Amino acid sequence: MAQFYEGIGRRKQSTARVRLTSGSGKFLINEKPLDVYFGRLGDMDSILSPFNAVDQDNSGFDVTVKVSGGGVNGQAESVRLGLARAFVKMNEDYLSSLRKAGLLTRDARVKERKKPGLKRARKAPTYTKR
Questions:
Q1: For residue 85, which of 7, 30, 62, 111 is within the disulfide window of CB 3.0 to 4.6 Å?
Q2: Spatial CB neighbours of 11, under 8 Å, sequence gap ≥ 6
Q3: Domain 4-100 adopts which CATH fold?
């Protein structure tokens, strides 16, 4: 079995388990290619930004990802964080360049809970005088 490096990424309600191995450049997310799973414009650039930060070409690595929960944006950002963490496990020298690019900071913002008497977290019902 080949040596792999694993990184866990989380964002909002999504969790991504990213495995990085040396290979031919395959990038599979839930058994689908990257461009099929994330079809939105800009998502692929966002996900591949850890490769740019460490001056690596993604053709030398095989990446397999299991991602679940949340929406498209949360999943894309969780994959990006997991990939950055996998790079750090692979080589500690990448830590400073990934940190400088802001790719190792977990975005802790999550949906705020609904409050009693309100329609959503902060939206109040319409005030009526009569």
A1: 7
A2: 70, 74, 75, 77, 78, 81, 106, 107
A3: Ribosomal Protein S5; domain 2 (3.30.230)
